[in-house]
Amino acid sequence: MFVAAEDYEDRGLSLDARLIERPAATFFMTARGHCPDAGVCDGDLLIVDRAETASPGRVVVAAVAGELVVRRLPAAWREDDGLDVWGVVRRLVRAP
């Protein structure tokens, strides 16, 4: 049986506090189309951190020919490869 304590304080649930490390550098984006190598499906909500450092194997949002695209960086990727990384995908939220 559950009994509420008199001094119980309901703090609520904050997804911002759980999912975002740097609010000033974080953006929400909705994926349009599929990117199987990155595990991204059409309609997924991407939580993108522009202050995160890109590294091989990470899923990133990059500018390619004036459009933002989602890609997984290859193992041999280096910063001087010419890919304009816009931000790193920190979280992915998929509807059931």
Structure in words:
The protein has 96 residues and is mainly β. It has one domain (23-93): Umud Fragment, subunit A. It is built from one helix and five strands. The protein has one helix spanning 15-19, and strands spanning 26-30, 45-49, 59-64, 67-72, 84-93. A five-stranded antiparallel sheet has the order 1-2-5-3-4, with no helix packed on it. The model has no long low-confidence stretch (mean pLDDT 89).
**Which class best fits the helix and strand makeup?**
mainly beta
Total DSSP helices: 1
Runs with pLDDT <50, length 5+? none
Give the overall shape.
elongated
Span between termini? 32 Å
Identify the CATH architecture.
Ribbon
| Number of E strands | 5
Keywords:
five-stranded antiparallel beta sheet; elongated; mainly beta; Umud Fragment, subunit A; 1 helix; 96 residues
What layout of secondary structure does this protein have?
Blueprint (H helix, E strand, L loop, with lengths): L14 H5 L6 E5 L14 E5 L9 E6 L2 E6 L11 E10 L3
Antiparallel strand pairs: 1-2, 2-5, 3-4, 3-5
In short:
With 96 residues, the chain is mainly β.
